[in-house]
Design a protein that fits this description.
- The chain is α+β, with helices and mostly antiparallel strands.
- The chain folds into two domains: 15-169, 60s Ribosomal Protein L30, Chain: A, CATH 3.30.1330; 182-473, no CATH class.
- Helices cover 50% and strands 10% of the residues.
- The strands form three sheets. Strands 5-2-6-7-8 form a five-stranded mixed sheet. A two-stranded antiparallel ribbon has the order 1-9. A two-stranded antiparallel sheet has the order 3-4.
- The longest helix has 25 residues, at 226-250.
- It starts with a helix and ends with a helix.
- The relative contact order is 0.13.
- It binds iron/sulfur cluster.
Length: 477
C-alpha cells in the first residue's frame, strides 16, 4: 500500500485534478528542481510542451493557468483562488514570469507554451500516459540546462518520466496492515478483528511522519494522540468540503469558459427549502444539489477537495452531507469512519486500476467516487466489512463503460449533473448491499479489474479529449 487518505483527499483548486492540480504541481516541482540545482538568475527562457489529453482539453481545464502559477511558486492547496486572475493578468500584461516569485523570465503563452494536439505522448515511440508534459529551461545562449517530463496520472498525482518508468510514485511505505486487493483488505480486517475504517486509521497513524504527504493546515492536526491527529486531519478535509458546498449553494451566475452554463445549485436549493417539506424524495434532491454545488465551484476554479479527482469532487461530500442531515445520530465519528472507509476503497482503484479520466474514462472518476461513497456510507451507517465491499462493487458495476466527453473541454457538461447522479447511485448501492442477506456473485476485485480493462479498451477519443460523445454532438455556442 503506497497511497495515503490525504493524497486521495487533497485540498486544491478547480476545475481539474489531472489538468489543473497535476500540471501546477509538476510546474512547481520543475521550478524547485531548477532552484536546487542551478542559479535561477541564469535562466533566460522556459519552454513547456503539453501532449495528448492535456493538449486537447487543457485550455478548457485551465492547464495553461496552472502551469504559469506553478512556475511562479504557487501550490494547489495554498494558492488563493481570489488572487489567481490578478496574478495571471500581471504575467500576461508584461510577458514576464517570476520563477518561484523571484527571478524574471520572459514568458508568453503564445511563444513558450505549446499544445501538441496531434501528438499523444512526449515520445511517440514510447506510449506512456496520455497526460504528458515536458519542461525545459534555457540559458542565454539557447542551450537547455534542465529538461524534465512529467505525467499527470489522475487525482492530482504526478510522476516524473523516471518514476513512471519504474512505476513508483513514492518509496514503498511501511504500514501495519498492508493490502493490495479487496479480498486481502477483508481478510486482514477479519484476522485482526478490525473494521475497514479501523484498519485504515492504523495505517494512517503509521504514515503521520511521512513528510511527502501534504496534510491540511497544521493548526488542525498538530495536537493530540496520533489517532486524534489523523481524525483532525480528516475533519479538516470535511470542513473544507463543507465550505465549498456552502459557497456553491449561494453563488449565482454564469460559469467561466464560454459555454454560458448557469449555476443551478442556489436555485434548486431555494426550491427545496421552500417546497421540499412536502416532497417525499427531497433527501435525494438535496444529495443532487450538494453534489452540483461542489462541482459548480470546481468549474468556477474555486477551492475544492479532490475526491478522488476534481471532476468527481461532488459525490463524496454530497453523501457526507446526506449522512449528517438525514441520518439520525450522525456525528463526526461517523464522518471519520465514512472517509476512512471510502479512502480504503479509493486506494484499491488507485493502485490496481486508474482514477484518470484520460486513461479509463469517467468510470475512473465519477464511477470510483460513487464506489468509494457507497462503501463509506455503509460503514457510517454501521454496516459490516462485507457489506462495504458489496456496496462498492454494486456502485462501480453500474458505472462500467462510462466515457469522458466534456463539452468544450470544460468540466461542466456532463460533469456537474453526473456528480449528482453518481451520489444518488451511491445511496442506492449502499441500501441494496445493506438489505442483502445472502452473498453476491461479483467481487469488488473483479469489478475493479473489469473497469480497468474496459478503460484500456475504450477508444482514446472517449477519454478526456473532447473529440467524441457529447463533446462532438453538441455545438458550442
Ligand atoms: S466527464 Fe467525468 S471524467 Fe470527464 S471531465 Fe467530466 S467528470 Fe471528469
Amino acid at each position: 500500500m503506497n497511497t495515503s487518505l490525504f493524497e486521495l483527499f487533497k485540498i486544491g483548486i478547480g476545475p481539474s485534478s489531472s489538468h489543473t492540480v497535476g500540471p501546477m504541481r509538476a510546474a512547481l516541482r520543475f521550478a524547485q528542481t531548477l532552484d536546487r540545482r542551478f542559479e535561477l538568475a541564469d535562466i533566460a527562457g522556459l519552454i513547456v510542451d503539453l501532449y495528448g489529453s492535456l493538449a486537447l482539453t487543457g485550455l478548457g481545464h485551465g492547464t495553461n493557468r496552472a502551469i504559469l502559477l506553478g512556475l511562479t511558486g504557487e501550490a494547489p492547496d495554498t494558492v488563493d483562488p481570489a488572487v489567481i486572475d490578478a496574478e495571471l493578468e500581471a504575467i500576461r500584461a508584461t510577458g514576464t514570469l517570476y520563477l518561484l516569485d523571484r527571478e524574471p523570465v520572459p514568458f508568453t503563452e503564445q511563444e513558450h507554451l505549446h499544445f501538441h494536439r496531434e501528438q499523444m505522448y512526449p515520445d511517440p515511440e514510447e506510449p506512456t500516459h496520455p497526460n504528458g508534459m515536458r519542461f525545459r529551461a534555457l540559458l542565454a545562449d539557447g542551450s537547455v540546462i534542465l529538461e524534465e517530463v512529467f505525467y499527470s496520472i489522475g487525482g492530482g498525482f504526478i510522476l516524473s518520466a523516471e518514476e513512471f518508468a519504474s512505476q513508483q510514485d513514492a518509496a514503498t511505505r511501511s504500514v501495519p496492515f498492508p493490502f493490495s486487493s479487496a479480498a486481502e483488505l477483508l481478510s486482514v480486517s477479519a484476522k485482526n478483528r478490525l473494521t475497514i475504517a479501523e484498519l485504515l486509521l492504523a495505517n494512517e497513524v503509521a504514515l503521520l511522519d511521512d513528510v511527502s504527504i501534504r496534510r491540511p493546515p497544521a493548526e488542525n492536526v498538530s495536537n493530540g494522540t496520533p489517532e486524534e491527529r489523523v481524525k483532525a486531519g480528516i475533519l479538516a478535509i470535511w470542513r473544507t468540503m463543507e465550505a465549498c458546498t456552502e459557497l456553491g449553494l449561494k453563488t449565482e451566475g454564469i460559469l467561466p469558459g464560454g459555454l454560458r452554463v448557469r449555476r443551478r445549485a442556489p436555485r434548486l436549493a431555494h426550491r427545496l427549502e421552500t417546497e421540499g417539506a412536502k416532497d417525499p424524495l427531497a433527501a435525494m434532491d438535496w444529495v443532487t444539489v450538494y453534489a452540483m454545488a461542489v462541482n459548480e465551484e470546481n468549474a468556477a476554479g474555486g477551492r475544492v477537495v479532490t475526491a478522488p479527482t476534481n471532476g468527481a469532487a461532488g459525490v463524496i461530500p454530497a453523501i457526507a452531507h446526506y449522512y449528517m442531515r438525514f441520518i439520525e445520530g450522525a456525528d463526526d465519528e461517523g464522518i471519520v469512519c465514512y472517509f476512512l472507509t471510502a479512502a480504503a476503497i479509493g486506494i484499491l482503484y488507485k493502485e490496481n486500476a486508474s482514477i484518470s479520466g484520460a486513461e479509463v474514462g469517467c468510470q475512473g472518476e465519477v464511477g470510483v467516487a460513487c464506489s468509494m461513497a457507497a462503501g463509506g456510507l455503509v460503514a457510517a451507517l454501521g454496516g459490516n466489512n462485507d457489506q462495504v465491499e458489496h456496496a462498492a462493487e454494486i456502485a462501480m458495476e453500474h458505472n462500467l463503460g462510462m466515457t469522458c466527453d466534456p463539452i468544450g473541454g470544460l468540466v461542466q457538461i456532463p460533469c456537474i449533473e453526473r456528480n449528482g447522479m453518481g451520489a444518488v447511485k451511491a445511496i442506492n448501492a449502499a441500501r441494496m448491499a445493506m438489505h442483502e442477506t445472502e452473498g453476491h456473485k461479483l467481487s469488488l476485485d473483479q469489478v475493479i479489474a473489469t473497469m480497468y480493462q474496459t478503460g484500456l479498451d475504450m477508444q482514446s477519443r472517449y477519454k478526456e479529449t473532447s473529440l467524441a460523445g457529447l463533446a462532438l454532438n453538441v455545438i458550442e455556442c
